[in-house]
């Protein structure tokens, strides 16, 4: 399992969980994925934890800003300049929800919403460069935007990150595309044109909350940009988003999609979208014991997983062979 040491700007580089119950969340992911969690205390800035697999960083975890905010998985994209990215977000019609803020000697980060309301974050590394393990079992293998206006998304993310989009054709892909950076796939795009979830199986709010301030965990140090007391404010704060709201989905690689889905249920989670076949492999959408939504994927060999993250262009290793990129 080679260690990633850097990411090109515009590439997904980190995910973290904003949790309403850190103890319950840690127990869930330790049982489901075998992760181990360690926490650091940062005084008034609170606590922030890191999940590891085999001693390598795979994800973060921290408390939500207020106890009434639902749990959420947050997706971060690498940037070389968080301030510049924030300006591009505003110019492209998005909203700056938090920051940019300096997080001690770890990174600079900022939280945004795209024009449709999907939350995402950027990470300008200092000491912490992001996940050390990707494209391996129980590590991040893909990030996918679900939205109702793919053309609007193509324009927005193209202006912010320089991405282009390529439709995925052929049986099984449905209405999906992949985001390309320098000609290589870095993330996915799915049109939310399916019928609403049936009663009793409705998808919880992706991440649960209606705004980035409500959802973001982030390494400690991000809270100074919020109102006094660390809780969000504003006319649209506090209203939960629709169950079918636009969102970024973090997808983790697993060896057996069915077994993982059943184990998630036994651990207190739920199956939002049952395992189904895609050309890339067997895929399901789940919630954890606190309602945070995430995806799992059992790649179909050979090279059947989501396209791998591209090399960092820094000191990171080449693609590790767990998946094979297209393009």
Automatic annotation (TrEMBL):
The protein's matches in Pfam families, at most eight in alphabetical order, are given as: Glyoxalase (PF00903)
Family annotation (InterPro entries): Anthracycline_SecMetBiosynth (IPR052164), Glyas_Bleomycin-R_OHBP_Dase (IPR029068), Glyas_Fos-R_dOase_dom (IPR004360), VOC_core (IPR037523)
Region: Disordered; residue ranges are 190-244, 300-327
- Output compositional bias ranges, type Pro residues: 300-310
CDD domains hit by this protein: SgaA_N_like
Domain VOC: residue ranges: 11-125, 139-312
Annotated protein name in UniProt:
VOC family protein
Lineage here is: Bacteria, Bacillati, Actinomycetota, Actinomycetes, Streptosporangiales
């Amino acid at each position: 399992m080679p260690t990633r040491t850097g990411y090109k700007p515009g590439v997904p580089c980190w995910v973290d969980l904003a949790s309403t119950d850190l103890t319950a969340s840690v127990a869930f992911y330790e049982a489901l994925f075998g992760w181990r969690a360690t926490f650091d205390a940062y005084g008034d800035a609170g606590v922030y934890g890191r999940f590891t697999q085999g001693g390598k960083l795979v994800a973060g975890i921290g408390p939500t800003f207020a106890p009434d905010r639902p749990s959420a998985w947050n997706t971060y994209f690498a940037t070389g300049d968080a301030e510049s990215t924030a300006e591009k977000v505003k110019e492209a019609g998005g909203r700056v929800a938090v920051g940019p803020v300096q997080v001690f000697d770890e990174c600079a980060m900022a939280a945004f919403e795209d024009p449709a309301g999907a939350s995402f974050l950027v990470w300008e590394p200092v000491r912490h460069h992001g996940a050390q393990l990707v494209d391996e079992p129980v590590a991040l293998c893909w990030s996918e935007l679900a939205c109702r206006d793919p053309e609007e998304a193509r324009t927005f993310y193209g202006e912010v990150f320089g991405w282009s989009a390529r439709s995925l054709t052929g049986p099984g892909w449905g209405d999906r595309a992949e985001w390309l950076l320098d000609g290589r796939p870095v993330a996915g795009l799915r049109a939310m044109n399916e019928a609403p979830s049936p009663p009793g199986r409705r998808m919880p709010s992706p991440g649960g909350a209606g705004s980035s301030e409500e959802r973001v965990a982030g390494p400690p140090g991000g809270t100074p940009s919020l109102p006094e007391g660390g809780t969000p404010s504003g006319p649209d704060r506090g209203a939960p988003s629709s169950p079918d709201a636009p969102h970024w989905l973090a997808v983790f690689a697993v060896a057996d999609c069915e077994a993982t889905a059943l184990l998630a249920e036994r651990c207190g989670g739920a199956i939002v979208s049952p395992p189904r076949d895609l050309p890339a492999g067997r895929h399901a959408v789940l919630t954890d014991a606190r309602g945070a939504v995430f995806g799992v994927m059992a790649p179909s060999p050979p090279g059947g997983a989501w396209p791998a993250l591209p090399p960092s262009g820094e000191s990171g290793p080449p693609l590790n062979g767990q998946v094979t990129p297209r393009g």
